[in-house]
Amino acid sequence: MRKFRFILTAMVAIAGFSFVSCDKDEEVTKNNYTRYQEAVDAQINKKNDKAILLVAFGSTWQQAFDAFDETIEAYKKAFPKADVYLSYSSAICINRAAAGENTDKRNFYAPNFWLHGLGAAKYEEITVQSLQVIPGEEFSRVVNYIKDFANNSLGDLDDEYLSEVTINLGMPLLATEEDVERVAEAIDVVYGDSLANGVMAFMGHGNPDSYDTYKANIRYNQLEEALQALPNRDGKYFVGTVDAPENYKVQVLQRMQEKGVQEGTKIYLHPLMSIAGDHAHNDMGGDDDAWDDGYVENDEGEVEDTSWKCYFENYDYPTQNIMLGLLEVEAIRSIWIDHTVFAEEVEDAYHSMFPEAE
Predict the structure, then answer these.
(1) Which of 15, 58, 340, 18 is nearest to 147 (CA)?
(2) Nearest to 58 by CA among 101, 13, 93, 110
(3) 3-state secondary structure 316-337
(4) Model pTM?
(5) Strand 344-345 to strand 166-170: parallel, antiparallel, or no bridges (unpaired)?
(6) End-to-end CA distance of the chain, in Å?
(7) What is the arrangement of strands in the sheet containing 198-204, beginning at the earlier edge strand?
(8) Model confidence pLDDT, tens digit, residues 125-170
(9) Which domains, from first to last, does the chain contain?
(10) Are strands 266-271 and 198-204 parallel, antiparallel or unpaired?
């Protein structure tokens, strides 16, 4: 493999779990940063020369914690010669998990702390595996963490080591159109037979256009097309989002009706996210409802403050929640694992993650 060297100027900002403070808070921030790094360093147990760092957005739900724990064990089994670690990229999730928002308190740390710790331990090969679904805004943050690490942004790692270490990047679930086809087939193997008397609607997150760095929202459209193109599945699968313009639950219902899905048809609701967390339990399957003699769409064409469950049921479509994150579906989790197997050195991966270029 080619050794990875960056020629980019070192980036000063530390992405992820850090606080921007006024002068009076600088000492607190510094002490917190040191404390977090020490906590991560204490968890690094170098048994092999290779390390895998899984990067998830994060969650505060016990079901998500269990899914991450199960994923770590699956990775350890698949990569017995690598040490496996997990990080959260969301500062909000890190803070709320530490506070025990939905379950017992649990401490997670941002990728910059983990990468620094892995570098200090001098792993010969580090693979960063994105647990994102699409190569969008959150994935761009993963790439930036790697850039900061490779450029020794704090200036306290061994530059000679950084010039020699191999850094690989495992792509998100729906990185390519080939991934879209494979995920569609895996979904149908798991759920196809249950759709004899109903349809299934997947709820992804999506990016607002202004933040969708890699135009990755197209993956949701492609996945719906791939699912509906499967033999005998036309009109059975739909894919919408929480946050992608023109693909909210409102548009999902419109597409269902255009496909001839009649009132009274059962809709199975499933998160299209790595874990079943806050969005799944509330935005998708929650009981909150803004129905008051009908729904009012906002300027973007979405109905806010109403879950998918309530929205569809108020239009006479009974629903059933399938509260599973994609990491809990072994056939789909295996696709992430394959992305780790075929992870590319960062130099190559950085130039191949733009969906609109395919």
Answers:
(1) 15
(2) 93
(3) CCCEEECCCCHHHCHHHHHHHH
(4) 0.89
(5) antiparallel
(6) 25
(7) 237-241, 198-204, 266-271, 319-321
(8) 999 999 999 999 899 999 999 999 998 988 999 999 999 999 999 9
(9) 23-173+330-357 (3.40.50.1400), 177-273+286-322 (3.40.50.1400)
(10) parallel
